[in-house]
Specification:
It contains twelve helices and 18 strands. With 391 residues, it is an alpha/beta fold.
C-alpha cells in the first residue's frame, strides 16, 4: 500500500493510471465521488497489490446500538470485538441498558459471527460522566456485588463475550477501589471464559494532576484487567483550543509512560475516527467546535476550495476555510495520520488498537489496518487476515 498526496493538476484518472490500479478501486478505497474534485494536499490510499500483514493484533471499535447496518456489516471483518456503548448504573444499584436497546446490534453482530463486548460506564441519566456517582459506587461494596451479578446475567442472557469498564474522572482517593472493582469483575467474567478491559485516561506520569487523571492508577488497573485501552485522543476537543485530536508526538509520550507501568501485551492504542471544525477566533469558554467525520472533512475542503496541509510534528492534516463571514479551521485524520499511529503500535509492540467510534465509515483506515496487521479473531482463537471488500 502507498499513500499519495494530491498535487496541483492531478486527476483521479491520472493517479489511477500512474499506479496501475483500477479507477473504481481507487475511488472505493478512498470513498471518492465523481462530482467532488480532488484537493491539493489530500492524501489517498493506493492499494497496489495483495497485502502482507504482520503480527496479529486486537482491533476493537466502540459503537452505539443505533449504528447503521451497512457500516457495521463492512466494519466487522476488521474487528476483534465490537464494544457496545453503554450500560450504566444508578444509586439503587440497578444496571441500566443503552438508551437505544442493544437487541438489534447484537443480532447483527451474531449473524456475522462477530464478538460483542458489554461496556459498563459511569455515565449518569444525562449522558455525562458523574464523578460523585462513581465515588458512591466504589465505596459501596453491596452495590458493586449487585452490579457484577447483573452484568454477569446480562452477558449470559444476551451473548456478550466480554466486559469493558469505562469509569472516568475517578477521585484520587478512589483509585485503589476502582482497581479492586475491576479485579472482582474480572474474576467473575473470566470464569465465563471472557476478558475484562478497562479504559485509561492519557497520563504521562505518576501523580498527574487533573480530575481526568488523578484516580487512574496505571499499574493497579493494568494488573486488574486483561487489557487496557489508552484514550489517546481529545487533545483537540469541542471546547478546547484548535489542534490535532491525537497528535502523534503527544500520543508517544502516553505510550512511553504506559509501557513502563503495564505489560505492552495488554495495551491498546486509542485512535479517533473523527475530527473537529472550529469557528475562529477561538474564545475560551465560548467557542464550541463541531464534530466532523474524516471523509466529511475532505469533502468540506473540496466544497470550500481549501488546500489541505499536514503538520509534521502532530502528523495530522488540517485546513482553513471561510463561510458566511466566519473563518474556520478543521483538524481531522487521513491515511498519513493513521499510518503514523499504527507505526506507534508496531514500534512499541502494543497488543492492538481501539477506535472511538465506528459510526462513520472511514474505509482507508480499515484497509491500512488490515494491510499492516493480522486481525485477531477472538471467536476463532487465532489471527485471520481481513478480506478486502469487492469493488
Amino acid at each position: 500500500m502507498e499513500i499519495y498526496v494530491v498535487r496541483a493538476g492531478d486527476t483521479i484518472w491520472g493517479i489511477a493510471r500512474r499506479f496501475g490500479v483500477p479507477l473504481e478501486q481507487l475511488m472505493w478505497d478512498n470513498q471518492l465521488e465523481s462530482d467532488i474534485p480532488l484537493m491539493v494536499g489530500q492524501a489517498l490510499l493506493v492499494r497496489t497489490g495483495m497485502a502482507q500483514p504482520g503480527r496479529p493484533v486486537i482491533s476493537i471499535g466502540y459503537a452505539y446500538p443505533f449504528i447503521q447496518t451497512e457500516v457495521l456489516e463492512e466494519t466487522l471483518c476488521y474487528l476483534t470485538d465490537v464494544y457496545v456503548f453503554s450500560y450504566r448504573f444508578d444509586r439503587e444499584a440497578r444496571l441500566i441498558g443503552p438508551d437505544t436497546p442493544d437487541d438489534r446490534i447484537l443480532e447483527e453482530i451474531a449473524a456475522r459471527n462477530g464478538s460483542p463486548v458489554l461496556v459498563l460506564s459511569s455515565l449518569d441519566e444525562n449522558g455525562s460522566f458523574d464523578r460523585e456517582l462513581l465515588s458512591w459506587f466504589l465505596n459501596d461494596s453491596a452495590a458493586q456485588e449487585s452490579i457484577i451479578r447483573q452484568v454477569e446475567e446480562t452477558v449470559l442472557e444476551k451473548g456478550y463475550r466480554g466486559v469493558d469498564v469505562d469509569f472516568e474522572y475517578a477521585k484520587r482517593e478512589d483509585s485503589e477501589k476502582l482497581a479492586a472493582f475491576v479485579a472482582d469483575l474480572r474474576q467473575v467474567i473470566n470464569a465465563l471464559g471472557y476478558p475484562v478491559s478497562v479504559t485509561l485516561a492519557p497520563k504521562t506520569y505518576d501523580g498527574q494532576e487533573g480530575s481526568l487523571y488523578e484516580g487512574t492508577d496505571y499499574r493497579l488497573l493494568g494488573e486488574a484487567a486483561d487489557q487496557a485501552l489508552l484514550m489517546t485522543y481529545e487533545w483537540g476537543y469541542s471546547r478546547g483550543q484548535p489542534m490535532a485530536v491525537a497528535p502523534v508526538n503527544l500520543v508517544r509520550r502516553v505510550v512511553e509512560y504506559a509501557v513502563s507501568r503495564i505489560p505492552k501485551e495488554k495495551l491498546l492504542l486509542g485512535i479517533p475516527n473523527y475530527g473537529y471544525d472550529w469557528p475562529l477566533p477561538f474564545q475560551p469558554g465560548e467557542t464550541v467546535a463541531r464534530t466532523v467525520g474524516n471523509v466529511e472533512a475532505v469533502r468540506l475542503a473540496a466544497e470550500t476550495g481549501s488546500e489541505i496541509f499536514f503538520d509534521e510534528v502532530a502528523q495530522t492534516p488540517y485546513f482553513h476555510y471561510r463561510r458566511d463571514g466566519v473563518s474556520h479551521v478543521v483538524w481531522f485524520e487521513d491515511p498519513r495520520s493513521i499510518r503514523a499511529k499504527l507505526q506507534v503500535v508496531s514500534n512499541y509492540g502494543l497488543a492492538g488498537v481501539g477506535y472511538w467510534q465506528i459510526l462513520r465509515m472511514f474505509r482507508a483506515n480499515w484497509l491500512l489496518l488490515a494491510g499492516t496487521f493480522d486481525i485477531y479473531r477472538r471467536n476463532e482463537g487465532q489471527g485471520a487476515t481481513a478480506v478486502f471488500p469487492a469493488v
